[in-house]
Amino acid sequence: MNFQQLRIIRETVRQNFNLTEVGNALFTSQSGVSKHIKDLEDELGVALFVRKGKRFLGLTEPGKELLTIVERMLIDAGNVKRLAEQFSQRDAGQLTIATTHTQARYALPRVVAAFREAFPRVHLVLHQASPDELVRLLLAGEADLGIATEAIADVPELVSFPYYSWHHSVVAPPSHPLHRTALTLDSLASYPIVTYHQGFTGRARIDRAFAEAGLTPDIVMAALDADVIKAYVELGLGVGIVASMAVDPTRDTALKVVEGPVLFGHQTARIAVRRGHYLRSFAYRFISLCSPALEEGVVRSALDPARV
């Protein structure tokens, strides 16, 4: 048994049992992939995959149990490497953060600037992703930290921490009649709306609020990020619903926040780490720069396997 065989087992599942794609992902041939799998099955004395002819259809029961162990072994192998780097290159290395456009654009610039000043030898990678893709990157060990509002709090393999609270704001050109009426769900629903795509930046909260009020809003456009939403609101396509931190009065001079109550509740952006993932010291520092309350001891305690 060797690590290449374990990587092939994991990658075969990730590539939906397509051995050609497995070979491409691991820079080897399909025949090499097949041989590694056969050698491992022969060594273990059990079939790991359900087959139909030469096609792989899924995992057998032993294969399913083995996959859990393989995932853990490969995570620990990566942890060993990071542990060695922690002591041999304490202030150098790479920190990969998977985050949404909203966080990368509006919440993280100050943190990134402070981190770069403190750790100039650390290569910081910001991987912009949807919430679901962000979870996949964390679970695959391809990102050290994930920052988002959606998805991460409900994944048992992740430990997440509150970053900051935010709410949606309604924006419209300064001359829009909504500025001269009371802001309610009813008044808002009487105009075309431009807001986020499903699954992004609290869209589920928006839909739920209108549904609970018995209203069907006219959402004429849905976008992945606030900059696009604001651009089309400026063009007069509709009223915008965006994350509050995405509105800057000094920059968004063609728009104005509609004053009124918070219609869609408060939400919490969170920072997530996969359970068992070894974090370098500079990763803990990045987290504390996001939120001083999340000092290293607090995060380490929450990540302690004994607490699971």
UniProtKB/TrEMBL annotation:
Alphabetized, the UniProt keywords read:
DNA-binding, Transcription, Transcription regulation
What is the annotated signal peptide range for this record? none
Q: Output the SUPFAM superfamilies linked to this UniProt entry.
A: Periplasmic binding protein-like II, Winged helix' DNA-binding domain
**Cross-referenced InterPro entries:** CysB_PBP2 (IPR037423), LysR_HTH_N (IPR000847), LysR_subst-bd (IPR005119), WH-like_DNA-bd_sf (IPR036388), WH_DNA-bd_sf (IPR036390)
What highest taxon heads this organism's lineage? Bacteria
Q: Where is the HTH lysR-type domain?
A: 1-59
Similarity-based family:
Belongs to the LysR transcriptional regulatory family.
Return the protein name.
LysR family cys regulon transcriptional activator
Q: Record the organism.
A: Gulbenkiania mobilis
Which lineage?
A: Bacteria, Pseudomonadati, Pseudomonadota, Betaproteobacteria, Neisseriales
